[in-house]
Amino acid sequence: MTKPYIFITRKCSEQQLKALYEIADVEMWPEEEAPCPREILVEKAKMADGLLTMLSDSIDQELLDCATNLKVVANLAVGFDNIDIKYAEAKGIVVCNTPDILTDTTADLTFGLLLSTARRLIEAADYVKNNQWKSWGPLLLAGYDVHHKTIGIVGMGKIGQALAKRATGFEMDILYHNRSRNTEAEEILGARYCSLDELLQTSDFVVCLTPLTNDTKELFNKISFQKMKSTAIFINASRGAVVNERDLYEALIDKEIAGAGLDVFTKEPISADHPLVGLPNVVALPHIGSASIETRLSMVELCAANMYAVLTGMEPKTRVKVK
Ligand SMILES: NC(=O)C1=CN([C@@H]2O[C@H](COP(=O)(O)OP(=O)(O)OC[C@H]3O[C@@H](n4cnc5c(N)ncnc54)[C@H](O)[C@@H]3O)[C@@H](O)[C@H]2O)C=CC1
Ligand SMILES: O=C(O)C(=O)CO
């Protein structure tokens, strides 16, 4: 019997993939930073029983139609907006993601991004590096306090709740808006559920942690920024397309809001000459929410375990359920 064929779309640590090498012929795109070009991915998908994919690979109908042997897609991310999951399910292809193991790491980064934006950490570090520091000044690089302020979390799921837990250490008031009530966050962390409008109007920090769906696409737009306080800071660690970036840029230029911390963008990588990136009150990061060594290795391991399970006839640990 021929072994299954697995294609991995980015260079990953082989140690975490050991189990797959025992049961399959495994091929890996050799580059860490350069993505596998679409035409090569389509060619590989035609033969593949399993694909280990990145969030930057579009696993759409065209690709799935070519992939006549495909049984499993293991996405190296909790988000799966890059995959047409309904179409995959209709074709009997199992899709898996990497929830839970990245929750704390992503919440740490999100809170760090919030602190960096509010307290102008990147600007301040550049100030020293660029030899601009001439003397101590009463309002030199003064930012906004974080402690005892109000944080409004849109998307109180796993990462949202882990972020709320961090906010309690800063004695913040926690508001949230979610598809349904999160009683654990209410009872343990004192979070208060409210409408999106109330959250936008009253929060000092508005943080988006929803998945990207038809409902959340451009949820943050001109109207939402107009509702926010002029001192508010917007943080996005979910997906770029939940924001209308032109509206965000205008809100920042018109001083409708005070700043933004962005880990994700509509088009990634965002170019350095994008108007948003040039603003001094924007902290822009290259989608590093889950990027700790420990977490990224665990994510690869979980992808491998999921793929191993499906290819050996077992139920994977973290299968994406189509709603
Ligand atoms: N920046 C980064 O590197 C990372 C980004 N992410 C993003 O964070 C997202 C959330 O991850 P988890 O917390 O693990 O997922 P989760 O599924 O536990 O939480 C998402 C929450 O959003 C809520 N939600 C969905 N649609 C909504 C809407 N229209 N309005 C209000 N709330 C809504 C859901 O009810 C759920 O509670 C991922 O889907 C991914 O896009 C995740 C990990 C790392
Ligand atoms: O897991 C995700 O959805 C990410 O964006 C990266 O970890």
TrEMBL record:
GO molecular function, one term: hydroxypyruvate reductase [NAD(P)H] activity
Keywords, alphabetical: Oxidoreductase
InterPro entries: D-isomer_2-hydroxyacid_DH (IPR050223), D-isomer_2_OHA_DH_cat_dom (IPR006139), D-isomer_DH_CS (IPR029753), D-isomer_DH_CS1 (IPR029752), D-isomer_DH_NAD-bd (IPR006140), NAD(P)-bd_dom_sf (IPR036291)
Any Pfam family: 2-Hacid_dh
Residue ranges annotated for the D-isomer specific 2-hydroxyacid dehydrogenase catalytic domain, each copy included: 7-320
GO cellular component terms attached to this protein's record: cytosol
Keyword Metal-binding: no
EC number assigned by the record: 1.1.1.79, 1.1.1.81
Highest taxon above the source species: Bacteria
SUPFAM superfamilies: Formate/glycerate dehydrogenase catalytic domain-like, NAD(P)-binding Rossmann-fold domains
Reactions the enzyme catalyzes: glycolate + NADP(+) = glyoxylate + NADPH + H(+); (R)-glycerate + NADP(+) = 3-hydroxypyruvate + NADPH + H(+); (R)-glycerate + NAD(+) = 3-hydroxypyruvate + NADH + H(+)
Location of the D-isomer specific 2-hydroxyacid dehydrogenase NAD-binding domain: 111-289
Family that this chain belongs to: Belongs to the D-isomer specific 2-hydroxyacid dehydrogenase family. GhrB subfamily.
Identification of the protein by name: Glyoxylate/hydroxypyruvate reductase B
Protein source organism: Metabacillus litoralis
